[in-house]
DNA sequence: CTTGTCAGAACTCGGCTAAT
DNA sequence: ATTAGCCGAGTTCTGACAAG
């Protein structure tokens, strides 16, 4: 017995019957499609979650399609219904990694006084280095691995790009430092000019990245703790900038 | 009947190793 | 030093199956 016949036993007028029929059609037609889509999204999320787990525990090279499939209880072939290839999974995991980094940096700089760029730089550098050391496999994936994943994140059609936003946060701090008078010496060339926020930001990033990557890749060296290195790097840099301002 | 999902088989490729 | 064979990995093809 179909839905129409069921409703014929009720004392309903024709308009009500049509409305109910439409509702039934909606439940039959659209809701299952929504359910399927929800299930698909759910599985996609599960694939990404397990991928992150594998990368966090064993590193990116350990993320194989067969291992991933085994862990989620499907065949390797099924993974290709949800992702174009392994690179697309890696790009998506990278994007989540950048998003986590952005959250850490935003949270740290947000706690510092807005009108104190030196304090914001200290907070940002500390958070960055702490993130790298506490999430070594994620850091390796997004900054020490294949740079094409960064490009993939930056060129997403939906514009969801936490990598560029994190970079923008660093440039913002650099700009505030310059505005506040923390200007590096001009004159590395014959035609002196003021350093740009981008140049200062990239130099700062090189220092922070240097500490994290040395700590992750070289167990014996450096011997100084990351905490000491961060402190010395930032304070030396700030004093240098202040001195250049005075001179 | 159509559509979407799944798994098994097979293909291709790169890295490693033993034999020559 | 070179080559053949093996192995593991990513990917594709194809047919079975279930849901609508």
Number of helices: 11
Distance between the termini: 92 Å
- Provide the domain count: 2
Give the CATH H-level superfamily of the largest domain.
Tetracycline Repressor, domain 2
Could you say which structural class the secondary elements and strand pairing correspond to?
Answer: mainly alpha
In N-to-C order, the SSE pattern is HHHHHHHHHHH
Residue share in β-strands = under 5%
Shape: elongated
Unreliable segments of 5+ consecutive residues? 1-31
**Architecture per CATH nomenclature, i.e. the level-2 architecture of the largest domain:** Orthogonal Bundle
* Total beta strand runs: 0
How can the largest sheet be summarized? none
- Give the integer mean of the pLDDT values: 78
Helix content: over 70%
Please identify the top-level CATH class of the largest domain. Mainly Alpha
Radius of gyration: 27 Å
CATH topology value of the largest domain? Tetracycline Repressor, domain 2
What does it look like?
This is TetR family transcriptional regulator. Keywords: DNA-binding, Transcription, Transcription regulation. One of its GO terms (molecular function) is transcription cis-regulatory region binding. InterPro entries: Homeodomain-like_sf (IPR009057), HTH-type_TetR-like_transc_reg (IPR050109), HTH_TetR (IPR001647), MT1864/Rv1816-like_C (IPR025996), Tet_transcr_reg_TetR-rel_C_sf (IPR036271). It is built from 11 helices and no strands. Mean pLDDT is 78; it is low at 1-31. By secondary structure, it is mainly alpha-helical. The protein starts with a helix and ends with a helix. The chain binds a DNA duplex (20 and 20 nucleotides) through α2 and α4.
